[in-house]
Amino acid sequence: MIHPSYVELMKVVNDNVEIGEEPVVNSRYSIVIASAKRARQIIAGDEPMVANAKGKKPLSIAVEELYNGDVQIMGEDKESDEVE
């Protein structure tokens, strides 16, 4: 099993949402898309923001970055889906 689960990851990403506001992530699909986009950025040469990234796969690094809050998912009205 991969940790964190998508449910845990959704809770962390939506943690700072105020009551009454729409959550940043509404579905597993949103988490998968954000993780994949960040993994592609890492593959393209972006520096990983987690310690001991050497030897880890780009997708594992991307999920860890999202879970740690190193990368944020921006809403649809923003220019990009992720901001460092």
Shape: elongated
Low-confidence stretches: none
What oligomeric state is this? single chain
Radius of gyration: 13 Å
What is the CA–CA distance across the termini?
27 Å
Biggest sheet features:
2 strands, antiparallel
Q: How many DSSP-defined strands?
A: 2
Strand residue percentage: under 5%
Give the helix/strand class: mainly alpha
The topology string of helices and strands comes to HHHEE
Write down the overall mean pLDDT.
81
Helix content: 40-55%
Q: Give the number of helices.
A: 3
User: Order of strands across the widest beta sheet?
Assistant: 1-2
Description of the molecule:
The protein is mainly alpha-helical. Helices cover 42% and strands 5% of the residues. The chain has three helices and two strands. The protein has a two-stranded antiparallel sheet. Strand 1 and strand 2 form a beta hairpin. Helix 1 packs across helix 3 and helix 2 packs across helix 3. The protein is elongated and about 40 Å long.
